[in-house]
Design a protein that fits this description.
Blueprint (H helix, E strand, L loop, with lengths): L26 E9 L8 E11 L6 E9 L4 E8 L5 E8 L3 E5 L1 E4 L5 E7 L7 E9 L2 E8 L5 E8 L7 E10 L16 E10 L3 E2 L1 E6 L9 E5 L3 E6 L23 H10 L2 E6 L7 E3 L10 E6 L5 E5 L2 E5 L4 E6 L4 E3 L7
Parallel strand pairs: 18-20, 19-21
Antiparallel strand pairs: 1-12, 1-15, 2-9, 2-13, 3-4, 3-12, 4-5, 5-8, 6-11, 7-8, 9-10, 10-11, 13-14, 13-17, 16-17, 20-23, 21-22, 23-24
Length: 344
């Protein structure tokens, strides 16, 4: 599925310390599939969603609802957190030919079409209804705050005459921080939680839903999703630069040094290597591989052994003691410590 088009108004922010960039593009993390009755087609699809935690000012989340036309292409409508406390409604259709209303423009990234967007202070904890209605070759996107009744027309987009009625849909959540704002690790992704209620066609037909997690940060300690008969919920947890228990661990021979080649081999197959030291599994010396060989890869040191270890990194030695946890990432020229409490 095509999840992203250029979001011109979004200014990426770096969640962690500079220059830790270009490490992880989280991208799509949760998918919500809709099942409609066989051969169903509609003039209007209504989506319902509620964001209870938007990830904070350093996150870039999109809670989106995709829709598709018979004999035509598709589009999406949803809520965005664009970072720096900027919220927006975003509404787009591929192969659209123009627009009749709204703050819209043509796009040509990952296909072509029309995008309409409004920066607006939608509210965390409020439930929103997002309607996509087709009348002839005009498709209108409207967002209604069901808590206070406020209605906003995001745009009226013109589609080719060959586009038929709306007939299928789905939803997704993505964290789209990119460029200089990319996350340094999946384990610092901003905490979010949201609810996708079952969509309705033409105000009477309700779809069934199911959900799953996926993507570059698909870790059960980071992302979770589940459904009941009426709604699907999902959460993202910020682990605070502490590696997930499911992350790959480097094997340690007790009392033997941990070689740089061993770490490099692990990082050849994974983006992260975890060095978990404890009594009976302890290395007196830990040698990091040269940063240029494993650019944008990370090493997490979780030291629980009674004896300290010497970490040989960046031409020096760092002593780690019982209870210390350190996350490093290579920027290609040096190993940098990721500090979850330090911002741009």
């Amino acid at each position: 599925m095509r999840y992203k088009i250029t979001k011109a108004s979004a200014v990426p922010l770096l969640l962690l310390i500079s220059p830790l960039t270009h490490a992880v593009v989280a991208g799509g993390i949760v998918s919500v599939e809709h099942t409609w009755p066989d051969n169903a087609e509609f003039n209007k699809l209504s989506f319902f969603q509620q964001v209870n935690n938007d990830g904070g000012k350093d996150s870039h989340y999109y809670w989106a609802n995709q829709f598709f036309f018979k004999q035509g292409d598709g589009g999406y409508i949803g809520l965005q957190n664009r970072g720096n406390r900027v919220h927006a409604f975003n509404y787009s259709i591929w192969q659209a030919t123009g627009w009749k209303g709204g703050e819209c423009n043509y796009f040509s990234h990952e296909g072509s079409g029309v995008q309409c967007q409004i920066e607006i202070s939608w509210k965390v904890g409020h439930q929103y209804k997002l309607d996509v209605s087709k009348n002839g070759n005009l498709v209108t996107g409207v967002v209604t705050d069901l808590m206070d009744g406020t209605t906003t027309t995001v745009g009226v987009i013109e589609v080719p005459d060959s586009f038929g009625k709306l007939h299928s849909s789905s939803g997704f959540v993505e964290e789209y921080s990119q460029g200089n704002g990319q996350l340094s690790s999946c384990y610092v992704m901003g905490a979010q939680s949201s609810i996708f209620l079952n969509p309705i066609g033409d105000d009477k037909t309700k779809a069934e839903q199911r959900t799953h997690t996926y993507g570059n940060c698909n870790d059960p300690y980071v992302v979770q999703a589940a459904c009941n008969d009426d709604a699907c919920i999902n959460t993202v947890s910020n682990l605070g630069a502490v590696a997930s228990p499911s992350a790959p661990r480097v094997s340690i021979v007790n009392g033997s040094n941990l070689a740089a080649d061993t770490l490099a081999e692990t990082l050849h197959n994974h983006d992260l290597a975890v060095i978990y030291s404890q009594d009976g599994s302890w290395a007196p010396n830990i040698h990091f591989p040269p940063p240029y060989a494993v650019k944008w890869k990370s090493i997490f040191v979780d030291h629980r052994a009674g004896y300290s270890s010497s970490v040989h990194v960046n031409g020096g030695i760092t002593q780690v003691n019982k209870g210390q946890q350190l996350m490093y990432m290579s920027n290609g020229s040096s190993w940098e410590i990721i500090d979850p409490n330090e911002e741009n």
